[in-house]
Structures are given as structure tokens and as C-alpha cells.
Amino acid sequence: VIGMSEQPTSITSTLGPTHTDRHPFQPPAVVAELDADVPLDSGEDRTLWLAAELLIMILLRVPIEALWDGACSPCRRWHQLTQSIEVQRRKRGGGGRWDAYANRWIQPRTLVGHVGPVRTLAVGPNGMVYSGSDDGTVKVWALGDSASTPVHTLHCFPSQVSAVAIGHDGTVYTGSQQFTHVQVWSSPTAEHPRRLVGHTLGITSLCVDTDSKLYSGSVDSTVRVWSTTAESHCWTLEGHSRAIRAVVVAGNDRVVSASDDRTLRVWSPEDGALLFVLHGHTGSVCSLVAGPNNTVYSGSFDKTVSVWSTEDGSRVRRLRHRTNPVLALASGTDHRVYTGVWDGGVSVWAGSTDGSHLHTAYGRSAALSLAVAQDGRVLCGSADHAIRVW
């Protein structure tokens, strides 16, 4: 029995350190190490090890950061590009109609009814607008009506309508890139069409001239000439090596065809003789429109618009788009030329002077087709199934 007056030195010496001898934040195992007869410092200098570890971290971090920046830079550049395009669209009002007298754009009216991209547009002699779409229909619109729904609908093909042309008597001609015949509708309210048969591949473009002739361009690389009165085949224009993408009648009674072979050909409508072969584009030529002073404009996938003289076959000038292929062309009575490109932009150019760029408005999707109404309003068929009237 140990008395209260005795010191606990004997207990400490025999049982080891008491709880009060431990460091208040150390577990027993650490206390045992501290109690062991081992020096706390082994005498090893770790300065060199720390310097080596720091050097290794620096050497590894530099290439890893470089690889990361290299992998992320395209994403950052794409984000910056899309942001800049969006800013440009907002600054320019996101669309609008070009008012030639006020020299400005106003907000567009949207015609909704198709359930597929609008590939082709045409304006009839009575001012009605005809639109062909991938949904296989041609819809007829009255621009004077405040409603944004079609007046009539022609159910043409089970698939894409790629070409529409309107005769002077109101006859509607339609073609599809999936079918080899041209449909002839006596009126917008007709139920069953007649057929013009002769091509071996699908129809890509249609055009009617003032001399009762219909021109049809095809993937079979030919242009066929038809009599609209007799509805019979006259002759075939041959010479292109790839698919025909556009056909137009120029002001001095010339027929011009454009093709995937990157050339334009100028033909005589009298006998179908070849007059000129126009070289200069480096991509497929997908759109044509007749311009003032016996000129024709051609839009291409090489992001340019070339202006050609149909009198001697020379190139007058070239209009360049910076980033997108030119998919559609149209011209107005004021000699202005309108171009539609892949990013939805529609640009206005001065056609009768030096071809200077006047303005650009942006839609929501690719501008696949363009037309100018009799009152000067511009129509754009888009990939988002809508028609915008500017």
C-alpha cells in the first residue's frame, strides 16, 4: 500500500510514463518513438531532394500545359468565332428587309408551312410566290395577304422539290432531283400534272423564257429544251461533264448553264449552239441570275460571285464572300443583286455600278433560295423550313 505522501517515482520507473507524461496531441505509438533512444534528426540533408522534386514538377508541368493548351485552343477559337458571329448578327438586327429608298433593313415577315428545307422559290406573273421544299410540296403564297399561311399546296413528289418555274400563262413546272421527269401543272389548283419525259437522271433546275421555251437542267449533265405550247422536246444542250446546277436566260437572248464541273456555258436559244465556255471558278457553280447590261452572275462553292458578259464571254468583276459558299442569287428591278450563303447571310450588292457591297443581314439558317417579288420585297428560303420576306 502506497501512502498519499509518497512520490509516484517508483510507479513511473516501473510502469512506464503516465498519461501526463505524453504529448497532449501525440498517440501512444508516437510517444513510444519519442521515448526510444533514437535521435529526432538523422543528420540527412533533404535540401537537394526538395530542389530535385521542384525541378521535376516544373519540367513536367510545362509540356502538360502546352499539350492542354494545344488541345483546347481549337475549342476556344471556335467559341470566339461563334460569339463574334452572334455579336455581328445582333448588331445588324438579326435579319430585316432591305428598304432601297430608306437604305436600311427592316424586320422580316416569316411564312411558315413547309416541314422541310425550302430549296427553290419563284414569282408568278400575278405576283404569287411559289416555294418548293424537301417535303415534296410546292406552296403558293399571296404576299399582299397579312396571313402567313399558303393559299394553295401542290403535292408534287414523295421527296424533294428542287426546281420550280412559272409560265407566262400561270402554268407551274416542277422538278425533283430524285425523279427524271418534269411535272406540268395547268394551274396552282390543279390536282394531276402532265409529264415531260426525256432526262435520264433527276431534275435540278428549270427556267422559262419569253419565247415559250422551257429549259430543264439535270444531274445527267444535259439541258433539255421544251416547247411550252406543244409540250414537246426541241433539242438537248450537251457539253458539261458533271451535273447541271442552274439555268438562266440572260437579257440579250442567251441561255447560260452552270455545272459541278466549275464552268458556265453560254448557248444560243435559236438552235442550241454553244457560244462560250466560261472558266474561272474553283468550285461547283450552284446558282445563276441575270444581271443588267447583258451580264450574268454566278455563285459558287469557292465563296465567290463572278460577273460575266454574255456578249463576249469575259469576266467583268468578282465579288468575294469571306467564309461561306454562295448558294443562292437573285436580282431586283433596281439592279441590286442579292446573294445567300451557308451561314444564313443575305448580302446586297450594287449591280449596275462597281459591284460594291451595300449591306448584309443574317437569318437563322442557311439561305438555300432567293427571289425578288414584283413590289421589290426579297424572299429567302431557308434550311429551317421557313420563308422570310424582307
Structure description:
The protein has 390 residues and is an alpha+beta fold. It has three helices and 30 strands. It has helices at 9-15, 28-35, 47-91, and strands at 97-99, 104-106, 109-111, 118-123, 129-133, 137-141, 152-155, 163-166, 172-175, 182-185, 194-196, 203-208, 213-218, 222-227, 232-238, 244-250, 254-259, 264-267, 274-278, 285-291, 295-300, 304-309, 315-320, 326-331, 336-341, 345-350, 357-362, 367-372, 378-382, 387-389. The longest helix has 45 residues, at 47-91. It is elongated and about 100 Å long.
Keywords:
390 residues; alpha+beta; 4-stranded antiparallel beta sheet; 3 helices; 39% strand; disordered N terminus
Per-chain topology:
Layout: H1 9-15, H2 28-35, H3 47-91, E1 97-99, E2 104-106, E3 109-111, E4 118-123, E5 129-133, E6 137-141, E7 152-155, E8 163-166, E9 172-175, E10 182-185, E11 194-196, E12 203-208, E13 213-218, E14 222-227, E15 232-238, E16 244-250, E17 254-259, E18 264-267, E19 274-278, E20 285-291, E21 295-300, E22 304-309, E23 315-320, E24 326-331, E25 336-341, E26 345-350, E27 357-362, E28 367-372, E29 378-382, E30 387-389
Antiparallel strand pairs: 1-2, 3-30, 4-5, 5-6, 6-7, 8-9, 9-10, 10-11, 12-13, 13-14, 14-15, 16-17, 17-18, 18-19, 20-21, 21-22, 22-23, 24-25, 25-26, 26-27, 28-29, 29-30
